[in-house]
Amino acid sequence: xxxxxxxxxxxxxxxxxxxxxxxxxxxxxxxxxxxxxxxxxxxxxxxxxxxxxxxxxxxxxxxxxxxxxxxxxxxxxxxxxxxxxxxxxxxxxxxxxxxxxxxxxxxxxxxxxxxxxxxxxxxxxxxxxxxxxxxxxxxxxxxxxxxxxxxxxxxxxxxxxxxxxxxxxxxxxxxxxxxxxxxxxxxxxxxxxxxxxxxxxxxxxxxxxxxxxxxxxxxxxxxxxxxxxxxxxxxxxxxxxxxxxxxxxxxxxxxxxxxxxxxxxxxxxxxxxxxxxxxxxxxxxxxxxxxxxxxxxxxxxxxxxxxxxxxxxxxxxxxxxxxxxx
Amino acid sequence: xxxxxxxxxxxxxxxxxxxxxxxxxxxxxxxxxxxxxxxxxxxxxxxxxxxxxxxxxxxxxxxxxxxxxxxxxxxxxxxxxxxxxxxxxxxxxxxxxxxxxxxxxxxxxxxxxxxxxxxxxxxxxxxxxxxxxxxxxxxxxxxxxxxxxxxxxxxxxxxxxxxxxxxxxxxxxxxxxxxxxxxxxxxxxxxxxxxxxxxxxxxxxxxxxxxxxxxxxxxxxxxxxxxxxxxxxxxxxxxxxxxxxxxxxxxxxxxxxxxxxxxxxxxxxxxxxxxxxxxxxxxx
Lengths: 326, 284
Known about the structure:
Order of helices and strands of chain B: HHHHEEHHHHHHHHH
Largest interface: A-B, 33 and 31 residues
Strand order of the largest sheet of chain A: 5-6-7-3-8-9
CATH architecture of the largest domain in chain A: 3-Layer(aba) Sandwich
Number of strands of chain A: 13
Largest sheet of chain B: 2 strands, antiparallel
Number of domains of chain A: 2
Strand content of chain A: 25-35%
Strand content of chain B: under 5%
CATH superfamily of the largest domain in chain A: P-loop containing nucleotide triphosphate hydrolases
Number of strands of chain B: 2
Radius of gyration of chain A: 25 Å
Oligomer: heterodimer
Shape of chain A: globular
Distance between the termini of chain B: 20 Å
Structural class of chain B: mainly alpha
Radius of gyration of chain B: 21 Å
Order of helices and strands of chain A: EHEEHEHEHHHEHEHEEHEEEHEH
Structural class of chain A: alpha/beta
Protein backbone atom coordinates (compact mmCIF):
# COMPACT_ATOMS: atom_id res chain seq x y z
CA UNK A 1 0.00 0.00 0.00
CA UNK A 2 1.24 3.51 -0.77
CA UNK A 3 2.13 5.57 2.28
CA UNK A 4 0.76 8.74 0.69
CA UNK A 5 -2.27 8.61 -1.57
CA UNK A 6 -3.65 11.76 -3.10
CA UNK A 7 -6.73 11.78 -5.31
CA UNK A 8 -7.99 14.77 -7.23
CA UNK A 9 -6.95 17.14 -4.45
CA UNK A 10 -8.08 20.73 -4.99
CA UNK A 11 -7.58 23.86 -2.94
CA UNK A 12 -9.04 27.25 -3.82
CA UNK A 13 -8.56 30.43 -1.81
CA UNK A 14 -10.71 33.51 -1.85
CA UNK A 15 -8.47 36.55 -1.77
CA UNK A 16 -9.43 40.17 -1.37
CA UNK A 17 -8.49 42.22 -4.40
CA UNK A 18 -6.85 45.33 -3.09
CA UNK A 19 -6.51 48.09 -5.63
CA UNK A 20 -4.04 50.88 -5.67
CA UNK A 21 -4.67 54.37 -4.33
CA UNK A 22 -6.55 56.06 -1.53
CA UNK A 23 -9.82 56.26 -3.46
CA UNK A 24 -9.86 52.55 -4.00
CA UNK A 25 -8.92 52.00 -0.36
CA UNK A 26 -11.98 54.01 0.73
CA UNK A 27 -14.18 52.16 -1.74
CA UNK A 28 -12.80 48.95 -0.30
CA UNK A 29 -14.33 49.87 3.06
CA UNK A 30 -17.81 49.46 1.61
CA UNK A 31 -17.42 47.06 -1.20
CA UNK A 32 -14.80 44.38 -1.50
CA UNK A 33 -14.00 42.37 -4.54
CA UNK A 34 -12.77 38.87 -4.05
CA UNK A 35 -11.00 36.65 -6.45
CA UNK A 36 -10.75 32.89 -6.27
CA UNK A 37 -7.24 31.55 -6.59
CA UNK A 38 -6.86 27.89 -7.46
CA UNK A 39 -3.67 26.97 -5.66
CA UNK A 40 -3.95 23.24 -6.28
CA UNK A 41 -6.12 21.91 -9.10
CA UNK A 42 -6.87 18.23 -8.99
CA UNK A 43 -3.58 16.64 -7.98
CA UNK A 44 -3.33 12.84 -7.85
CA UNK A 45 -0.21 11.15 -6.59
CA UNK A 46 1.05 7.96 -4.95
CA UNK A 47 4.19 7.83 -2.84
CA UNK A 48 5.64 4.52 -1.65
CA UNK A 49 7.23 4.01 1.77
CA UNK A 50 10.89 5.03 1.82
CA UNK A 51 10.71 7.30 -1.22
CA UNK A 52 12.43 10.70 -1.25
CA UNK A 53 10.35 12.86 -3.56
CA UNK A 54 11.06 16.44 -4.62
CA UNK A 55 8.37 18.93 -5.52
CA UNK A 56 9.62 21.38 -8.07
CA UNK A 57 7.81 24.35 -9.47
CA UNK A 58 7.91 28.13 -9.77
CA UNK A 59 6.84 30.32 -6.84
CA UNK A 60 3.10 30.11 -6.29
CA UNK A 61 2.85 26.81 -8.15
CA UNK A 62 1.07 24.99 -5.33
CA UNK A 63 3.98 23.07 -3.79
CA UNK A 64 3.71 24.53 -0.29
CA UNK A 65 -0.09 24.36 -0.44
CA UNK A 66 0.19 20.64 -1.16
CA UNK A 67 2.52 20.15 1.82
CA UNK A 68 0.14 22.13 4.02
CA UNK A 69 -2.73 19.93 2.89
CA UNK A 70 -0.76 16.79 3.63
CA UNK A 71 0.25 18.02 7.07
CA UNK A 72 -3.33 18.95 7.93
CA UNK A 73 -2.78 22.68 8.31
CA UNK A 74 -5.47 23.44 5.74
CA UNK A 75 -8.59 21.72 4.42
CA UNK A 76 -8.91 20.93 0.73
CA UNK A 77 -11.75 22.35 -1.33
CA UNK A 78 -12.32 18.89 -2.78
CA UNK A 79 -10.60 15.57 -3.31
CA UNK A 80 -9.05 13.21 -0.82
CA UNK A 81 -5.69 12.28 0.62
CA UNK A 82 -4.36 9.82 3.13
CA UNK A 83 -0.96 9.66 4.76
CA UNK A 84 -0.20 6.38 6.56
CA UNK A 85 -3.92 5.74 6.39
CA UNK A 86 -4.83 9.02 8.17
CA UNK A 87 -6.75 11.86 6.58
CA UNK A 88 -4.39 14.73 7.43
CA UNK A 89 -6.94 17.51 7.99
CA UNK A 90 -8.77 15.49 10.62
CA UNK A 91 -5.61 16.13 12.64
CA UNK A 92 -5.68 12.94 14.59
CA UNK A 93 -3.23 13.10 17.53
CA UNK A 94 -1.86 9.72 16.49
CA UNK A 95 -1.12 11.12 13.03
CA UNK A 96 0.58 14.20 14.49
CA UNK A 97 2.93 11.97 16.44
CA UNK A 98 4.01 10.15 13.30
CA UNK A 99 4.97 12.93 10.92
CA UNK A 100 6.86 16.21 10.99
CA UNK A 101 6.76 19.40 8.97
CA UNK A 102 9.77 21.68 8.66
CA UNK A 103 9.23 25.03 7.01
CA UNK A 104 12.44 26.79 6.09
CA UNK A 105 11.71 30.10 7.71
CA UNK A 106 9.37 29.13 10.50
CA UNK A 107 10.67 28.59 13.93
CA UNK A 108 9.50 25.85 16.21
CA UNK A 109 12.29 26.47 18.72
CA UNK A 110 12.11 28.89 21.65
CA UNK A 111 14.07 31.89 20.52
CA UNK A 112 15.59 32.90 23.84
CA UNK A 113 16.35 29.46 25.18
CA UNK A 114 18.99 26.90 24.28
CA UNK A 115 17.69 24.34 21.74
CA UNK A 116 18.14 21.69 24.42
CA UNK A 117 15.12 23.11 26.30
CA UNK A 118 12.90 22.99 23.23
CA UNK A 119 14.00 19.40 22.62
CA UNK A 120 13.04 18.43 26.14
CA UNK A 121 9.62 19.94 25.62
CA UNK A 122 9.32 17.95 22.39
CA UNK A 123 10.25 14.81 24.26
CA UNK A 124 7.27 15.39 26.51
CA UNK A 125 4.85 16.52 23.82
CA UNK A 126 5.62 13.52 21.65
CA UNK A 127 5.87 11.08 24.60
CA UNK A 128 9.39 9.92 23.71
CA UNK A 129 10.80 7.61 26.36
CA UNK A 130 13.97 8.98 28.00
CA UNK A 131 16.30 6.26 26.71
CA UNK A 132 15.33 6.59 23.06
CA UNK A 133 15.23 10.39 23.41
CA UNK A 134 18.83 10.41 24.56
CA UNK A 135 19.90 7.96 21.88
CA UNK A 136 18.19 9.88 19.06
CA UNK A 137 19.40 13.25 20.29
CA UNK A 138 22.99 12.03 20.60
CA UNK A 139 22.85 10.52 17.16
CA UNK A 140 21.33 13.57 15.49
CA UNK A 141 23.54 16.14 17.19
CA UNK A 142 26.54 14.03 16.32
CA UNK A 143 25.56 13.66 12.67
CA UNK A 144 24.87 17.37 12.34
CA UNK A 145 27.88 18.32 14.43
CA UNK A 146 26.00 20.63 16.81
CA UNK A 147 26.55 18.93 20.17
CA UNK A 148 28.58 21.87 21.46
CA UNK A 149 25.77 24.31 20.50
CA UNK A 150 22.99 22.62 22.45
CA UNK A 151 23.39 24.95 25.41
CA UNK A 152 23.48 28.18 23.44
CA UNK A 153 20.34 30.33 23.09
CA UNK A 154 18.76 29.80 19.67
CA UNK A 155 18.85 33.52 18.85
CA UNK A 156 22.65 33.39 18.99
CA UNK A 157 22.95 30.60 16.41
CA UNK A 158 23.67 31.18 12.73
CA UNK A 159 20.94 30.48 10.19
CA UNK A 160 22.58 27.19 9.22
CA UNK A 161 22.97 26.08 12.83
CA UNK A 162 19.37 27.01 13.51
CA UNK A 163 18.17 24.96 10.57
CA UNK A 164 20.08 21.98 11.92
CA UNK A 165 18.36 22.42 15.29
CA UNK A 166 15.00 22.69 13.52
CA UNK A 167 15.69 19.40 11.79
CA UNK A 168 16.64 17.75 15.07
CA UNK A 169 13.44 19.04 16.66
CA UNK A 170 11.47 17.57 13.77
CA UNK A 171 13.21 14.20 13.88
CA UNK A 172 13.37 13.56 17.64
CA UNK A 173 10.15 11.59 17.60
CA UNK A 174 11.40 9.51 14.65
CA UNK A 175 8.58 10.39 12.25
CA UNK A 176 7.69 7.97 9.49
CA UNK A 177 6.90 10.79 7.09
CA UNK A 178 8.75 14.08 6.84
CA UNK A 179 7.64 17.16 4.91
CA UNK A 180 10.41 19.64 4.17
CA UNK A 181 9.51 23.02 2.75
CA UNK A 182 12.65 24.65 1.40
CA UNK A 183 14.94 23.47 4.17
CA UNK A 184 18.05 25.09 2.71
CA UNK A 185 16.59 28.49 1.86
CA UNK A 186 18.99 31.32 2.61
CA UNK A 187 21.86 29.03 3.61
CA UNK A 188 25.40 29.33 2.31
CA UNK A 189 26.89 26.60 0.11
CA UNK A 190 28.61 24.80 2.97
CA UNK A 191 25.55 24.76 5.20
CA UNK A 192 23.42 23.64 2.26
CA UNK A 193 25.81 20.82 1.57
CA UNK A 194 25.83 19.75 5.23
CA UNK A 195 22.07 19.61 5.40
CA UNK A 196 21.90 17.68 2.12
CA UNK A 197 24.43 15.14 3.30
CA UNK A 198 22.60 14.72 6.57
CA UNK A 199 19.22 14.23 4.91
CA UNK A 200 20.66 11.74 2.47
CA UNK A 201 22.33 9.73 5.20
CA UNK A 202 19.33 9.85 7.51
CA UNK A 203 16.90 8.80 4.82
CA UNK A 204 19.10 5.92 3.71
CA UNK A 205 19.47 4.68 7.27
CA UNK A 206 15.90 5.07 8.43
CA UNK A 207 14.09 4.55 5.13
CA UNK A 208 11.53 7.19 6.07
CA UNK A 209 9.39 8.84 3.43
CA UNK A 210 10.35 12.43 2.66
CA UNK A 211 8.62 15.04 0.53
CA UNK A 212 10.78 18.05 -0.16
CA UNK A 213 10.25 21.35 -1.93
CA UNK A 214 13.29 23.32 -2.93
CA UNK A 215 14.48 25.84 -5.44
CA UNK A 216 18.01 24.54 -5.32
CA UNK A 217 18.63 21.98 -8.02
CA UNK A 218 21.64 20.78 -6.04
CA UNK A 219 19.34 19.72 -3.21
CA UNK A 220 17.13 17.89 -5.59
CA UNK A 221 19.81 16.18 -7.63
CA UNK A 222 21.71 15.14 -4.49
CA UNK A 223 18.70 13.71 -2.71
CA UNK A 224 15.78 12.69 -4.82
CA UNK A 225 15.37 10.09 -7.47
CA UNK A 226 11.82 11.06 -8.11
CA UNK A 227 10.74 14.54 -9.04
CA UNK A 228 7.22 15.89 -9.26
CA UNK A 229 6.91 19.14 -11.14
CA UNK A 230 3.93 21.26 -10.18
CA UNK A 231 2.97 24.42 -12.01
CA UNK A 232 -0.31 26.30 -11.87
CA UNK A 233 -1.63 23.79 -9.39
CA UNK A 234 -1.27 20.82 -11.74
CA UNK A 235 1.29 18.02 -11.85
CA UNK A 236 3.19 18.57 -15.07
CA UNK A 237 5.79 15.88 -14.69
CA UNK A 238 6.41 12.91 -12.43
CA UNK A 239 9.53 10.86 -12.94
CA UNK A 240 13.29 10.87 -12.61
CA UNK A 241 15.32 14.05 -12.61
CA UNK A 242 17.22 13.03 -15.73
CA UNK A 243 13.90 12.35 -17.42
CA UNK A 244 13.12 16.07 -17.19
CA UNK A 245 16.02 16.82 -19.51
CA UNK A 246 14.89 14.14 -21.94
CA UNK A 247 11.35 15.37 -21.93
CA UNK A 248 11.76 19.11 -21.83
CA UNK A 249 15.01 19.78 -23.60
CA UNK A 250 15.28 19.20 -27.35
CA UNK A 251 19.02 19.74 -27.61
CA UNK A 252 22.45 18.71 -26.38
CA UNK A 253 25.50 20.80 -25.74
CA UNK A 254 28.52 19.75 -27.84
CA UNK A 255 31.86 21.00 -26.55
CA UNK A 256 34.77 20.99 -28.97
CA UNK A 257 38.43 21.51 -28.31
CA UNK A 258 39.84 22.55 -31.67
CA UNK A 259 43.35 21.60 -32.72
CA UNK A 260 46.09 24.23 -32.64
CA UNK A 261 45.70 26.66 -35.53
CA UNK A 262 42.20 25.48 -36.40
CA UNK A 263 39.78 28.40 -36.87
CA UNK A 264 36.19 28.11 -35.59
CA UNK A 265 34.78 30.07 -38.52
CA UNK A 266 31.77 28.46 -40.12
CA UNK A 267 30.82 26.35 -37.09
CA UNK A 268 27.64 28.40 -36.64
CA UNK A 269 26.03 26.62 -39.59
CA UNK A 270 25.93 23.39 -37.51
CA UNK A 271 24.13 24.89 -34.55
CA UNK A 272 23.88 27.85 -32.20
CA UNK A 273 27.25 28.90 -30.79
CA UNK A 274 26.84 29.22 -27.03
CA UNK A 275 30.41 29.92 -26.02
CA UNK A 276 33.45 30.80 -28.09
CA UNK A 277 36.68 30.75 -26.20
CA UNK A 278 39.21 29.41 -28.71
CA UNK A 279 40.31 26.74 -28.87
CA UNK A 280 37.16 25.76 -26.93
CA UNK A 281 33.75 26.15 -28.55
CA UNK A 282 30.30 25.10 -27.32
CA UNK A 283 27.42 24.42 -29.67
CA UNK A 284 23.74 23.78 -29.13
CA UNK A 285 22.58 20.98 -31.41
CA UNK A 286 19.09 19.41 -31.72
CA UNK A 287 19.09 16.01 -30.04
CA UNK A 288 18.19 13.92 -33.10
CA UNK A 289 20.92 15.45 -35.23
CA UNK A 290 23.83 15.15 -32.80
CA UNK A 291 25.53 12.12 -34.35
CA UNK A 292 25.06 13.33 -37.94
CA UNK A 293 26.25 16.86 -37.24
CA UNK A 294 29.14 15.69 -35.11
CA UNK A 295 30.36 13.40 -37.92
CA UNK A 296 30.27 16.34 -40.35
CA UNK A 297 32.19 18.59 -37.97
CA UNK A 298 34.84 15.96 -37.35
CA UNK A 299 35.19 15.54 -41.12
CA UNK A 300 35.57 19.25 -41.76
CA UNK A 301 37.52 20.46 -38.73
CA UNK A 302 40.56 19.28 -36.90
CA UNK A 303 39.34 18.53 -33.38
CA UNK A 304 41.39 17.40 -30.34
CA UNK A 305 38.55 16.56 -27.96
CA UNK A 306 34.76 16.25 -27.99
CA UNK A 307 32.19 16.15 -25.17
CA UNK A 308 28.43 15.81 -25.59
CA UNK A 309 26.45 16.93 -22.55
CA UNK A 310 22.94 17.63 -21.45
CA UNK A 311 22.14 21.31 -21.02
CA UNK A 312 22.37 22.58 -17.41
CA UNK A 313 19.40 21.40 -15.37
CA UNK A 314 18.58 24.88 -14.07
CA UNK A 315 18.27 26.06 -17.65
CA UNK A 316 15.96 23.21 -18.64
CA UNK A 317 13.78 23.77 -15.63
CA UNK A 318 13.65 27.52 -16.13
CA UNK A 319 12.58 26.90 -19.72
CA UNK A 320 10.04 24.36 -18.60
CA UNK A 321 8.52 26.75 -16.03
CA UNK A 322 8.48 29.49 -18.61
CA UNK A 323 6.65 27.38 -21.17
CA UNK A 324 4.17 26.23 -18.53
CA UNK A 325 3.46 29.80 -17.51
CA UNK A 326 2.62 30.64 -21.11
CA UNK B 1 -6.30 17.73 22.42
CA UNK B 2 -3.34 16.06 24.01
CA UNK B 3 -4.92 16.00 27.42
CA UNK B 4 -7.63 13.77 25.99
CA UNK B 5 -5.25 11.53 24.15
CA UNK B 6 -2.70 11.18 26.93
CA UNK B 7 -3.06 9.40 30.25
CA UNK B 8 -3.55 11.94 33.09
CA UNK B 9 -0.03 11.47 34.47
CA UNK B 10 1.52 12.25 31.09
CA UNK B 11 -0.74 15.26 30.54
CA UNK B 12 0.29 16.77 33.89
CA UNK B 13 3.92 16.06 33.16
CA UNK B 14 3.54 17.88 29.82
CA UNK B 15 2.03 20.88 31.63
CA UNK B 16 4.87 20.80 34.12
CA UNK B 17 7.50 20.81 31.34
CA UNK B 18 5.70 23.66 29.52
CA UNK B 19 5.69 25.57 32.80
CA UNK B 20 9.36 24.92 33.41
CA UNK B 21 10.36 25.90 29.87
CA UNK B 22 8.28 29.07 29.92
CA UNK B 23 9.74 29.96 33.30
CA UNK B 24 13.26 29.53 31.95
CA UNK B 25 12.36 31.72 28.98
CA UNK B 26 10.95 34.38 31.25
CA UNK B 27 14.14 34.52 33.27
CA UNK B 28 16.22 34.89 30.12
CA UNK B 29 15.38 38.60 30.10
CA UNK B 30 16.52 39.25 33.64
CA UNK B 31 17.10 43.00 33.44
CA UNK B 32 13.97 44.01 31.58
CA UNK B 33 11.90 41.66 33.64
CA UNK B 34 13.12 42.92 37.03
CA UNK B 35 12.79 46.55 35.99
CA UNK B 36 9.30 46.02 34.55
CA UNK B 37 8.17 44.28 37.70
CA UNK B 38 9.46 46.93 40.05
CA UNK B 39 8.23 49.87 37.97
CA UNK B 40 4.70 48.65 38.44
CA UNK B 41 4.90 49.83 42.02
CA UNK B 42 5.42 53.45 41.04
CA UNK B 43 1.76 54.35 40.42
CA UNK B 44 1.04 53.67 44.11
CA UNK B 45 2.64 56.94 45.07
CA UNK B 46 0.72 58.99 42.51
CA UNK B 47 -2.53 57.27 43.46
CA UNK B 48 -2.05 57.99 47.16
CA UNK B 49 -1.37 61.65 46.39
CA UNK B 50 -4.37 61.82 44.08
CA UNK B 51 -6.77 60.48 46.69
CA UNK B 52 -5.22 62.70 49.35
CA UNK B 53 -5.97 65.69 47.12
CA UNK B 54 -9.55 64.49 46.62
CA UNK B 55 -10.16 64.04 50.34
CA UNK B 56 -8.49 67.33 51.12
CA UNK B 57 -10.84 69.15 48.79
CA UNK B 58 -13.79 67.53 50.56
CA UNK B 59 -12.65 68.60 54.00
CA UNK B 60 -9.66 70.93 53.87
CA UNK B 61 -9.30 71.07 57.64
CA UNK B 62 -9.48 67.35 58.39
CA UNK B 63 -9.07 65.28 55.22
CA UNK B 64 -8.56 62.18 57.39
CA UNK B 65 -12.12 62.30 58.62
CA UNK B 66 -13.76 62.98 55.24
CA UNK B 67 -15.50 60.12 53.53
CA UNK B 68 -16.84 59.19 50.10
CA UNK B 69 -19.68 56.65 50.15
CA UNK B 70 -18.34 55.20 53.36
CA UNK B 71 -14.69 55.14 52.25
CA UNK B 72 -12.27 57.16 54.33
CA UNK B 73 -8.89 58.12 52.97
CA UNK B 74 -7.38 55.12 54.75
CA UNK B 75 -9.98 52.77 53.31
CA UNK B 76 -9.30 54.13 49.85
CA UNK B 77 -5.56 53.51 50.06
CA UNK B 78 -6.13 50.03 51.49
CA UNK B 79 -8.59 49.37 48.66
CA UNK B 80 -6.16 50.59 46.06
CA UNK B 81 -3.34 48.40 47.37
CA UNK B 82 -5.61 45.36 47.33
CA UNK B 83 -6.77 45.97 43.75
CA UNK B 84 -3.12 46.17 42.80
CA UNK B 85 -2.65 42.73 44.27
CA UNK B 86 -5.75 41.49 42.46
CA UNK B 87 -4.49 42.84 39.16
CA UNK B 88 -1.16 41.13 39.70
CA UNK B 89 -3.19 37.95 39.28
CA UNK B 90 -5.81 38.91 36.72
CA UNK B 91 -3.96 41.15 34.26
CA UNK B 92 -2.43 39.35 31.27
CA UNK B 93 0.03 41.69 29.59
CA UNK B 94 0.50 40.82 25.95
CA UNK B 95 -1.67 37.72 25.93
CA UNK B 96 -4.32 38.84 23.42
CA UNK B 97 -1.92 40.65 21.14
CA UNK B 98 0.42 37.66 21.11
CA UNK B 99 -2.36 35.27 20.20
CA UNK B 100 -3.44 37.59 17.38
CA UNK B 101 0.17 37.87 16.20
CA UNK B 102 0.61 34.09 16.25
CA UNK B 103 -2.43 33.82 13.99
CA UNK B 104 -1.34 36.63 11.67
CA UNK B 105 2.23 35.35 11.31
CA UNK B 106 1.09 31.80 10.66
CA UNK B 107 2.95 30.47 13.69
CA UNK B 108 -0.33 28.96 14.77
CA UNK B 109 0.53 26.12 12.36
CA UNK B 110 2.67 24.65 15.05
CA UNK B 111 -0.40 23.90 17.14
CA UNK B 112 -2.00 22.18 14.18
CA UNK B 113 0.97 20.03 13.32
CA UNK B 114 2.33 19.08 16.72
CA UNK B 115 0.33 17.02 19.20
CA UNK B 116 -0.18 20.00 21.46
CA UNK B 117 -3.19 22.02 22.56
CA UNK B 118 -3.01 25.79 21.99
CA UNK B 119 -5.01 26.99 24.99
CA UNK B 120 -3.50 24.57 27.45
CA UNK B 121 -0.03 25.51 26.23
CA UNK B 122 -0.76 29.24 26.63
CA UNK B 123 -2.36 28.72 30.03
CA UNK B 124 0.65 26.98 31.51
CA UNK B 125 3.05 29.43 29.90
CA UNK B 126 1.07 32.19 31.56
CA UNK B 127 1.16 30.42 34.93
CA UNK B 128 4.94 30.39 34.49
CA UNK B 129 4.95 34.12 33.69
CA UNK B 130 3.00 34.80 36.83
CA UNK B 131 5.23 32.63 39.00
CA UNK B 132 8.28 34.43 37.64
CA UNK B 133 6.55 37.75 38.35
CA UNK B 134 5.61 36.86 41.91
CA UNK B 135 9.07 35.56 42.65
CA UNK B 136 10.38 39.06 42.03
CA UNK B 137 7.35 41.05 43.17
CA UNK B 138 6.61 39.33 46.48
CA UNK B 139 9.37 41.22 48.28
CA UNK B 140 8.23 44.68 47.16
CA UNK B 141 4.57 43.73 47.79
CA UNK B 142 5.37 42.74 51.38
CA UNK B 143 7.36 45.93 51.86
CA UNK B 144 4.59 48.14 50.46
CA UNK B 145 1.91 46.43 52.55
CA UNK B 146 4.13 46.65 55.62
CA UNK B 147 4.78 50.36 55.10
CA UNK B 148 1.08 50.98 54.52
CA UNK B 149 -0.12 48.70 57.33
CA UNK B 150 -1.76 51.62 59.17
CA UNK B 151 -4.17 52.13 56.30
CA UNK B 152 -5.75 48.77 57.05
CA UNK B 153 -7.77 50.06 59.94
CA UNK B 154 -9.67 46.83 60.48
CA UNK B 155 -6.51 44.76 60.85
CA UNK B 156 -6.27 41.22 59.44
CA UNK B 157 -9.51 39.71 58.20
CA UNK B 158 -10.77 36.37 59.56
CA UNK B 159 -9.30 33.13 58.29
CA UNK B 160 -12.36 32.32 56.20
CA UNK B 161 -12.32 35.77 54.57
CA UNK B 162 -8.65 35.35 53.83
CA UNK B 163 -9.29 31.93 52.28
CA UNK B 164 -12.08 33.41 50.10
CA UNK B 165 -9.73 36.22 49.12
CA UNK B 166 -7.06 33.74 47.99
CA UNK B 167 -9.61 31.70 46.09
CA UNK B 168 -10.94 34.84 44.41
CA UNK B 169 -7.39 35.73 43.32
CA UNK B 170 -6.87 32.32 41.72
CA UNK B 171 -10.23 32.46 39.99
CA UNK B 172 -9.58 36.00 38.79
CA UNK B 173 -6.37 34.73 37.20
CA UNK B 174 -8.35 32.12 35.26
CA UNK B 175 -11.03 34.65 34.34
CA UNK B 176 -8.44 37.15 33.14
CA UNK B 177 -6.69 34.47 31.11
CA UNK B 178 -9.74 33.07 29.33
CA UNK B 179 -11.32 36.50 28.78
CA UNK B 180 -8.21 37.92 27.14
CA UNK B 181 -7.59 34.68 25.24
CA UNK B 182 -11.07 35.12 23.70
CA UNK B 183 -10.16 38.64 22.60
CA UNK B 184 -6.92 37.42 21.03
CA UNK B 185 -8.71 34.57 19.26
CA UNK B 186 -10.91 37.10 17.48
CA UNK B 187 -7.71 37.55 15.44
CA UNK B 188 -8.90 34.57 13.40
CA UNK B 189 -11.60 36.83 11.98
CA UNK B 190 -9.97 40.26 12.20
CA UNK B 191 -6.34 40.64 11.23
CA UNK B 192 -5.78 43.50 13.65
CA UNK B 193 -7.27 43.40 17.14
CA UNK B 194 -5.40 46.32 18.69
CA UNK B 195 -8.38 48.73 18.56
CA UNK B 196 -10.57 46.11 20.14
CA UNK B 197 -7.99 45.61 22.86
CA UNK B 198 -7.82 49.34 23.43
CA UNK B 199 -11.58 49.51 24.00
CA UNK B 200 -11.36 46.53 26.35
CA UNK B 201 -8.46 48.02 28.32
CA UNK B 202 -10.35 51.27 28.67
CA UNK B 203 -13.46 49.47 29.93
CA UNK B 204 -11.37 47.38 32.25
CA UNK B 205 -9.66 50.46 33.62
CA UNK B 206 -12.94 51.95 34.78
CA UNK B 207 -15.24 48.98 35.27
CA UNK B 208 -12.92 46.51 36.99
CA UNK B 209 -12.59 48.79 39.99
CA UNK B 210 -8.97 49.44 39.29
CA UNK B 211 -9.36 53.22 39.47
CA UNK B 212 -12.00 53.55 42.21
CA UNK B 213 -14.26 51.27 44.23
CA UNK B 214 -17.23 50.28 42.10
CA UNK B 215 -19.71 51.00 44.90
CA UNK B 216 -18.94 54.70 44.36
CA UNK B 217 -20.78 54.49 41.04
CA UNK B 218 -24.27 56.00 40.96
CA UNK B 219 -27.27 53.90 40.04
CA UNK B 220 -28.05 52.41 37.57
CA UNK B 221 -24.36 52.02 36.73
CA UNK B 222 -23.49 50.24 39.95
CA UNK B 223 -26.10 47.54 39.35
CA UNK B 224 -25.09 47.28 35.72
CA UNK B 225 -21.41 46.83 36.53
CA UNK B 226 -22.39 44.23 39.08
CA UNK B 227 -23.64 42.00 36.29
CA UNK B 228 -20.41 42.28 34.29
CA UNK B 229 -17.54 39.83 34.68
CA UNK B 230 -14.93 42.61 34.64
CA UNK B 231 -15.52 43.54 38.28
CA UNK B 232 -14.07 40.20 39.36
CA UNK B 233 -10.68 41.20 37.96
CA UNK B 234 -9.90 43.86 40.59
CA UNK B 235 -12.87 45.08 42.65
CA UNK B 236 -14.13 41.75 43.90
CA UNK B 237 -10.97 40.35 45.56
CA UNK B 238 -10.35 43.71 47.26
CA UNK B 239 -13.97 43.93 48.45
CA UNK B 240 -13.73 40.40 49.84
CA UNK B 241 -10.59 41.22 51.79
CA UNK B 242 -12.12 44.41 53.20
CA UNK B 243 -15.18 42.46 54.30
CA UNK B 244 -17.55 44.45 52.08
CA UNK B 245 -19.10 41.30 50.68
CA UNK B 246 -20.11 38.64 53.17
CA UNK B 247 -22.46 35.76 53.76
CA UNK B 248 -24.95 34.93 51.04
CA UNK B 249 -23.74 37.78 48.83
CA UNK B 250 -20.21 36.39 48.99
CA UNK B 251 -21.39 32.91 48.06
CA UNK B 252 -23.43 34.32 45.19
CA UNK B 253 -20.48 36.31 43.85
CA UNK B 254 -18.12 33.36 44.19
CA UNK B 255 -20.52 31.20 42.20
CA UNK B 256 -20.91 33.93 39.60
CA UNK B 257 -17.11 34.14 39.31
CA UNK B 258 -16.92 30.37 38.78
CA UNK B 259 -19.69 30.69 36.20
CA UNK B 260 -17.81 33.42 34.29
CA UNK B 261 -14.58 31.40 34.31
CA UNK B 262 -16.46 28.40 32.92
CA UNK B 263 -18.24 30.63 30.41
CA UNK B 264 -15.08 32.20 29.01
CA UNK B 265 -13.33 28.85 29.10
CA UNK B 266 -16.08 27.41 26.92
CA UNK B 267 -16.11 30.45 24.61
CA UNK B 268 -12.33 30.31 24.17
CA UNK B 269 -12.53 26.60 23.31
CA UNK B 270 -15.29 27.29 20.85
CA UNK B 271 -13.43 30.23 19.27
CA UNK B 272 -10.29 28.10 18.94
CA UNK B 273 -12.16 25.28 17.24
CA UNK B 274 -14.07 27.61 14.89
CA UNK B 275 -11.03 29.78 14.28
CA UNK B 276 -8.79 26.88 13.36
CA UNK B 277 -11.50 25.60 11.08
CA UNK B 278 -11.68 28.97 9.40
CA UNK B 279 -7.90 29.28 9.26
CA UNK B 280 -7.62 25.85 7.67
CA UNK B 281 -10.34 26.67 5.20
CA UNK B 282 -9.10 30.07 4.06
CA UNK B 283 -5.59 30.72 5.14
CA UNK B 284 -2.55 28.73 5.94
